[in-house]
Design goal:
By secondary structure, the chain is an all-alpha fold. The protein contains 14 helices and no strands. It folds into two domains: 186 residues, MFS general substrate transporter like domains (Growth Hormone, Chain: A, Up-down Bundle), CATH 1.20.1250.20; 199 residues, Up-down Bundle (Growth Hormone, Chain: A), CATH 1.20.1250. Keywords: Cell membrane, Membrane, Transmembrane, Transmembrane helix, Transport.
């Protein structure tokens, strides 16, 4: 494995760890009770800040990929890490809603600059036949960061939110330093006449556009771990259920994602693996309709996690396969539309379905609806991926 690949894996761990060390604490610190050490802001105001940060990041990711095609991914990744460092540090000193919003948006801009370029860099430094494995290792490192980040953040909160925010900022500074040392400047194969040319190409690529739009259905499902699944876990086991819930999901990914992907690589074509994984995610959500106890719910969550840990590397691999070599960043940027739209729709839809099921006296409503979305999405992916050629010896 090259130094660039190792650096990308290590920096991804640091980025996810730094993110989850501070973002969950924003709600705790700013909307927590004054008696408990919080600032007592309304949950809605803090939620608006976090939502605008997400919207900023996903919106800018589309352009971040196109800029990577023009200038190479490294400058974008380094600038993104620097801006996120400043944004997280600023959060630690924010004492008004406007300040917190500005800091969060700055952190979102940073994420929008490094997200797609990071995927483009992985594609450029990894031979096609090893890309699924590399994306799997990168995802594994991110899940490890998701496990470690909240634990470190909770420990640092005892020293004050400012300390936690500054520590998370320092982690992004370190991630940027790792990238500066290990990642070569990957110059574009040819200089685009305009940063938007690649986005136009991706948007007019009929098969890739279908693929991206169909994947919105999957991201509606994947966001339910934070919405409908969390609400059901709390209903079954109280507020303390969230720790085991997220711990199981991230822990399984750390332990199983890489060996599972190696097994899938040997016996299942990438397209078929993606379709099957989306079906598994939908089926796991459907089974939650009959989960009457918290342990039963955790079994469903385990199945759900097995599906999601296959989807990410296969989806990234197929995105790279769609893209012309000189437009990889633009294609990864355009693909962020599915996450942005699906995540936003899923957050609203999940809560609405839970409320609607309760109002109708039909608690299975959200789970059966989500299972149906899983089936429709899997069929849509089979349609969208028809005829996609294998390249450079990669399995189709």
């Amino acid at each position: 494995m090259s130094a660039a690949q190792l650096g990308l894996i290590a920096s991804n761990f640091l980025m996810w760890g730094g993110f989850f060390a501070v973002i969950p604490l924003v709600t705790v610190h700013f909307s927590g009770s004054v008696a408990g050490g919080g600032l007592g802001w309304s949950a809605a105001s803090v939620g608006a800040v976090l939502g605008l940060r997400q919207l900023t990041q996903q919106g800018l990711t589309v352009f971040g990929g196109a800029w990577a095609d023009r200038w190479g991914p490294k400058p974008l990744i380094l600038l993104g890490c620097a801006l996120r460092t400043l944004g997280f540090a600023w959060m630690g000193f924010s004492d008004s809603w406007a300040e917190l919003l500005a800091a969060a948006v700055l952190a979102g801009v940073g994420g929008g600059l490094f997200d797609a370029p990071k995927s483009a860099a992985i594609t450029q430094v990894t031979p096609p036949q090893h890309r699924t494995r590399m994306f799997s290792l990168t995802s594994l490192s991110g899940n490890a960061g998701m496990v470690m980040g909240p634990l470190i953040g909770a420990a640092l909160l005892g020293l004050g939110f400012r300390t936690a925010a500054l520590s998370a900022a320092a982690v992004y500074l370190l991630a940027g330093a790792v990238m500066a040392v290990t990642l070569p400047h990957l110059r574009p194969q040819r200089l685009a006449a305009s940063s938007l040319d690649g986005l136009r190409l991706a948007a007019t690529d009929t098969r890739f556009r279908r693929f991206t739009l169909v994947l919105i259905g999957y991201f509606i499902l994947s966001t339910q771990i934070n919405v409908a699944v969390t609400l059901k876990a709390i209903a079954l086991a109280g507020n303390g259920a969230t720790g085991p819930l997220y711990g199981l999901s991230a822990g399984l990914a750390v332990l199983l994602q890489y060996p599972l992907l190696r097994l899938v690589e040997r016996f299942v074509p990438v397209r078929s693996a993606l379709v099957a994984a989306v079906l598994l995610v939908g089926a796991a959500l459907g089974l939650m309709s009959v989960a009457a106890t918290f342990p039963q719910l955790l079994v469903c969550v385990a199945l759900y996690s097995l599906g999601t840990m296959i989807v990410y590397p296969t989806q990234q691999t197929l995105t790279a396969r769609f893209a012309p070599p000189e437009r990889v960043g633009s294609y990864f940027g355009f693909s962020a539309i599915s996450l942005g739209v699906g995540g936003a729709v899923g957050s609203v839809l999940g809560g609405a379905l839970v409320d609607g099921g309760a109002a109708l006296g039909f608690p299975a409503l959200p789970w059966l609806t989500l299972a149906l979305i899983g089936v429709v999405t899997a069929l849509g992916l089979r349609w969208a991926l028809r005829g996609l050629p294998a390249r450079d010896g990669a399995a189709a």
